[in-house]
Specification:
Distance between the termini: 38 Å
Number of helices: 3
CATH superfamily: START domain
Strand order of the largest sheet: 1-7-6-5-4-3-2
Structural class: alpha+beta
CATH topology: Alpha-D-Glucose-1,6-Bisphosphate, Chain A, domain 4
Shape: globular
Number of domains: 1
CATH class: Alpha Beta
Order of helices and strands: EHHEEEEEEH
Strand content: 35-45%
Length: 124
């Protein structure tokens, strides 16, 4: 198991950044893929049309913690993702990344989240 840590500068207030991750419509808008995000603790969520899924473990205005898994991982295998939101920044800590998945996930966060998010924010 390994850990990914990324701090991404984004030109938006913390509440907008949180909504981009935790609101189904906004998540779908910036990714271009279906999302059903349950942002309250105990609720389930899916993104990218079910390619990733999980459960929300903790939620506050400045932080979101999710049990997170790729749908192609073996049943019952989850990692832990913590998003911290501040004006102009998202900090990601992705813990318990399964062996062999770290490089793909590190690139995936940039390709599937941060770059589309930057483009979506710039267009607003």
């Amino acid at each position: 198991m390994s850990r990914i840590e990324q701090t991404i500068p984004l030109a938006a207030p913390a509440d907008t950044l949180r909504s981009l991750i935790a609101d189904s419509a906004m998540h779908s808008a910036f990714t271009g893929a279906p999302a059903d995000i349950g942002a309250e603790p105990g609720s389930t969520w899916t993104a990218f049309g079910g390619k990733i899924e999980g459960r929300t473990l903790d939620s506050s205005p400045t932080q979101l913690v999710q049990a997170w898994r790729s749908a192609d991982w073996p049943d019952g295998v989850y990692s832990l993702v913590t998003f911290q939101f501040a004006d102009g920044t998202i900090r990601l800590v992705h813990d318990a990344v399964p062996d062999g998945a770290k490089d793909m996930l590190e690139q995936g966060w940039h390709q599937m989240y941060w770059e589309p998010m930057k483009a979506w924010l710039a267009a607003r």
